[in-house]
Amino acid sequence: MGYAYEGYDLIGDVHGCALSLQLLLSKLGYSKKAGVYQHPRRQAVFLGDIVDRGPRIREALHIVRDMVDGGHAQIVMGNHEFNYLSYLTPGLPGSGMEYLRTHNRRHLRILNETLEQFANYPQEQQEFLQWIKEMPLFLDYEQFRVVHACWSQEHITQFLRTQGGNQIDDAYLHRSAHHDTPEWETMDRLLRGTHLKMPNDEVMVSKDGYKRRFFRTKFWAQQPQYYIDVVFQPDPLPEHVARMPLTEQDYQDLLYYSSDEPLLFIGHYWCDGEPKAVAPNIACIDYSAVKFGKLVAYRLDNEREIDPAKFIWVDVLKEIKDES
């Protein structure tokens, strides 16, 4: 990246909250010129998950794609974009797959708003799916890195070696649909993060009603000993599980991003409360905008450590109340 910009504005998971996005961009000093949001001296960087759940998915996609096409923003792929692309990509002849992501009730429930909002715009949908396929999976610069869920250097190094860059292609997309492939594991790790299986085959029911056998984990915990030391999700672990010691297998499944590595920006994890760093060099900027939380940005300049004063956000619930 050339330093054509004075700084970068990292923006968390939008999930179809187009009005909140417009308010946040205005707050950050971006304005519309020739129909495209732009800043005279800064560039936005979106952390993925523009689609699903929210009321204005098409509008959000148009805002972001126009900014990217105009050079006013960059974006990395989120797991929701990947799922959307896979859901609508037919399997290859002889693969035994009708589509790369199974058309079952759970997958439809997550994608439903996106599919409905594009129901009358099939051509537009195809154009956005092509654009999603071309999204980088990660950005790696000297000062900072961006990935939707988890920076796994091993998987990124392998990806660069096989792909020659930070984007997937058709062949990679089709291989990633099969669970026993390196491609599936890479997409899972970078776009969904690290997770551990609940001990003793236990099941958690999350706030949104899903039954889960795995829970999301930190990849920056220094010398963790118990499950509570690594859990990173809105739903707390059952108390008896939280106090259990990590097993040897758990340690093998966890990753560690050390504090002397470049600044890292992630989304994905449904944080709440006051935006703050999760480690001195890591910021998660997904604060559950679509669940009436906050749509958050981080204003990056030349710092090498996350500065708590650099988080900027729109409070979605307050914005809705102000509108009504």
Q: How many distinct folded domains? A: 1
Low-confidence regions? none
Distance between the termini: 43 Å
The coarse silhouette is globular
Per CATH, the architecture is: 4-Layer Sandwich
How much of the sequence is in beta strands?
15-25%
Describe the structure.
By secondary structure, this protein is α/β, with parallel strands linked by helices. The chain has a single domain, classed as Purple Acid Phosphatase, chain A, domain 2 (4-Layer Sandwich), CATH 3.60.21.10. The model has no long low-confidence stretch (mean pLDDT 95). The chain has helices at 18-27, 57-69, 79-87, 105-117, 122-133, 153-163, 170-175, 182-192, 239-242, 248-253, 316-323, and strands at 7-11, 31-33, 36-38, 42-46, 73-75, 138-140, 144-147, 194-197, 204-205, 211-212, 214-217, 263-266, 282-284, 286-287, 294-300, 311-315. The strands form 5 sheets. Strands 1, 4, 5, 14, 15 and 16 form a 6-stranded mixed sheet that branches. Strands 6-7-12-13 form a 4-stranded mixed sheet, with no helix packed on it.
